[in-house]
Specification:
heterodimer; A: 280 residues; mainly alpha; 81% helix; globular; disordered C terminus; B: 179 residues; 0% strand; disordered N terminus
């Protein structure tokens, strides 16, 4: 319905975005090589995660998907899932801040870590704030005229995808970030925020199913809402598994020193089979 | 916490046995909660897989649904996914500590499953009318089967939870728990 607009008028914008994406991959790869030259291993898997994440984000603003998404709510939703959930997850798992702190010279590295510890960044990166920015921004897009406007104005479309990517990244990092986090929040708080964010996503999906955005045919609205509901759940399940695995590992670390430092280590070893036998 | 319990008559190595019992008593709550979380998740999974996807009895959205019904539905959708996974990780943690007690864990599963099914069957289906069990003329047999089975599961969970309380599960109560 709005096929006349979009991509065609903005080849410069597309070129800039492709350039940024290529730069992001190149910088990460050179960071990886620098780290290895310094004798500190950095898994190639992480470069793969980073590249896939950048690709998932770029595909929502460059190429056939954004143009097709102009008049198709299902494709629009696929782009939204890719930019707001899949790409952030992949990018967070690539731990770019750790790589930067490890490979940058002392001065810029210190600057980054000072920035991360500053009050505004800590406020935005807090799970509650990050969750409100990410989930709330999504409600704003669909409940205001932003949705209609982003269909017509290519730059606004890119800005909205950029917001989804950024807020999605900050939120995912707040819940399952691998990068060093000063004052890491408690597990229960993160779990509650994660569940509430997942719920908000599911409620919005069913809301869109019941109340299609302006100009979206009912059939497309239904398919798009179903994709948002179940596609979103698939990525959320991955985040929940990673979150729980991180808790499991942390709880294991707390468990290990106690048995290792115990005064009767030898006794514990000797009596372990006896305990097993007595329990039979 | 368990210092008042009598030493085990079986083994002279009472310190270790007491320590193992102590872990089990202290982790009694985790056994129950791990089960409750998994039970909620299990019922939600059966609801989604069997009644929504396979039978197509439940509907994704029912025009009669009020907005707060969608909120409750979304909260339980999110919570049940989280609960299934978190419940299983808590179970793995219990196993790792040697503190897993299956009867208490199963009591938790029954409690969670029964409570959630009863909530779904009364509040979601009947009060807020998110969707019905099945779109047929005579809904009563379906509602009765749904809610009575939920109440039975919940009651079984309560009985088992009371019977597996840590005070009863002393040195004699751990037979076959670590098979």
């Amino acid at each position: 319905m709005r096929h006349g607009h979009g991509g065609g008028g903005a080849p410069t914008l597309e070129l800039i975005l492709i350039g940024l994406a290529a730069l992001a991959v190149l910088v990460y790869a050179s960071g990886m090589l620098t780290s290895r030259r310094q004798g500190r291993a950095w898994s190639t898997d992480r470069l793969g995660l980073w590249t896939l994440g950048i690709a998932a984000a770029t595909a929502t603003v460059v190429g056939p998907l954004p143009e097709a998404a102009q008049g198709d709510f299902v494709r629009h939703m696929a782009a939204h899932l890719s930019a707001g959930m899949l790409a952030p997850l992949l990018l967070v798992l690539a731990a770019p801040v750790t790589l930067a702190l490890r490979t940058l010279h002392v001065t810029p590295a210190r600057r980054i870590s000072r920035l991360l510890r500053s009050a505004p960044v800590r406020f935005i990166a807090h799970p509650v704030t990050a969750g409100i920015l990410s989930a709330g921004g999504l409600w704003l897009i669909y409940l205001t005229s932003i949705f209609e406007m982003m269909q017509a104005i290519p730059v606004l479309h890119v800005l909205v995808q950029g917001h989804l990517l950024l807020s999605g990244y900050v939120f995912t990092a707040a819940i399952i970030g691998r990068d060093p986090a000063p004052h890491a929040p408690r597990w229960v708080l993160k779990a509650v925020v994660l569940v509430l964010a997942m719920a908000s996503h599911a409620v919005l999906a069913k809301h869109l199913y019941a109340h299609p955005p302006t100009g979206v045919p009912i059939g497309q609205a239904h398919d798009g809402a179903l994709l948002m509901y179940y596609g979103g759940a698939a990525i959320e399940v991955a985040i929940v598994v990673i979150f729980c695995a991180q808790w499991y590992r942390a709880a294991g670390r707390r468990l290990a020193p106690r048995s290792a430092d115990a005064p009767h280590t030898g006794d514990a070893h000797r009596t372990a089979p006896a305990t097993m036998a007595s329990a039979k | 916490m368990t210092s008042s319990e009598p030493p085990s008559p079986r083994s002279p190595d009472t310190a270790v046995d007491a320590a193992a019992r102590d872990t089990r008593a202290a982790r009694s709550g985790q056994n129950l909660w791990s089960g409750v979380l998994f039970g909620v998740g299990l019922v939600a999974f059966i609801d989604e897989a069997v009644f929504h996807q396979l039978l197509h009895w439940h509907h994704f959205y029912d025009r009669a649904t009020p907005e707060w019904g969608l909120v409750s539905d979304g909260l339980f959708h999110a919570f049940s996914w989280f609960a299934t996974i978190a419940g299983l990780f808590l179970l793995a943690d219990l196993r790792r500590r040697g503190a897993l007690r299956w009867p208490r864990w199963i009591a938790g599963v029954l409690l969670g499953a029964g409570a959630f099914q009863l909530y779904d069957g009364t509040v979601h289906h009947k009060w807020w009318q998110i969707h019905q069990i099945r779109y047929v003329d005579d809904l009563l047999p379906y509602d009765l089967t749904w809610n009575i089975s939920a109440a039975v599961i919940l009651a079984a969970g309560v009985i088992l939870a009371v019977r597996t309380r840590p005070s009863r599960a002393g040195a004699a109560g751990d037979s076959g728990e670590r098979a």
